[in-house]
Amino acid sequence: MLFPDYRPRRLRQNEAFRRMVRETALSVDDLIFPLFVIDGTGVKNPIQSMPGHYQLSIDNLVKTANNAYELGIPAIMLFGIPKSKDPLATNAYAKNGIVQKAIKTLKNKIPELIVISDVCLCQYTDHGHCGIVNGQIIDNDATLDLLARTALSHAKAGADMVAPSDMMDGRVAEIRDILDENSLSNIPIMSYSAKYCSAFYGPFRHAADSAPKFGDRRTYQMDPSNAIEAIREVTMDIEEGADIIMIKPALPYLDIIYRIRNEIDLPVAAYNVSGEYAMIKAADKMGWIDGKKVMMETLTSIKRAGADMILTYFAIEAAKELNKMNIEHRTSNIEF
Ligand code: PBG
Questions:
Q1: Which ligand 1 atom is nearest residue 277's CA?
Q2: Each residue's pLDDT tens digit, 133-150
Q3: Ligand 1 centroid to 220 CA: how many Å?
Q4: Mean pLDDT score of the chain
Q5: Cβ contacts of residue 177 below 8 Å, gap of 6+?
Q6: Domains of the chain: residue spans and CATH
Q7: Is 248 a catalytic residue?
Q8: Closest CA to 131 of 139, 24, 272
Q9: Pick from 168, 74, 153: which is nearest to 114 by CA?
Q10: Cβ < 6 Å from ligand 1: which residues?
């Protein structure tokens, strides 16, 4: 059908029509809120490159998590900042490590909020790599057992789901095995399957103090130029037992989200990472863009590309915006 018989503008003429034909609806249900936990009490260290985000001690973490819960956000993703680091990342799988303690408290205070724990070693190793190092080499197979022990310690502390972000080969199978052996077969794995070696992680590495002390992560995280390989990574993780697969970062990799959504029949998560957040915040602060509108457009585009859920530092702001929109749609000015 061509103009003038068809006029696409007919269905754009007011908000009610636009809502009726809208193809993608972002919902608070889609949001997962990442949080950083650190030792101490009353701690709320601002993260400079991520305005509005903090390293939180457990007491403040519970308050922020509860804020998210009350806005309807179903889940948080937890990252720990340990007291000390060593070559074997012992604090990653310590029974009383910071994440393990935080999970226990969170599940005790807000039992219905889903707690997902990031499983990785980079915050806990003194060299900042996601695996055990042998000279300058990241030793894949020697790392698997430590990752599995870390995941198990999180699940034993009460985590609802574990999320390995290290990108070692074979870790999903190792984690699935150890959970099953410990009667934790009901704990799902959200695997960071297609995690690219990205400069967009910069602000996060300040926040979590996890930058590598030598070299970079190119031998384990994916080359940004590759798309077909993402399918292979995702397929491997599914065969190893992943329940949800993740693409990360989100905005520069919308094509990957789209491809994976079309190929795979498991839930797909996308991580709208720290650098994506920082860019919008910075441009908004300069007055160069309308940060709130760009946030909503960005999150909608990630959903439109095919993500079922979005990990985002905007979760609280976006939830407030979505809740407000819902109320606005229902408010009429008619007097009876
Ligand atoms: C740890 C990890 C990273 C992120 C999540 N888990 C950093 C990295 O791989 O260096 C990045 C998250 C973000 O930038 O928001 N492996």
A1: 15
A2: 999 999 999 999 999 999
A3: 13
A4: 97
A5: 148
A6: 26-331 (3.20.20.70)
A7: yes
A8: 139
A9: 74
A10: 118, 120, 122, 130, 165-166, 201, 204-205, 210, 217, 273-274
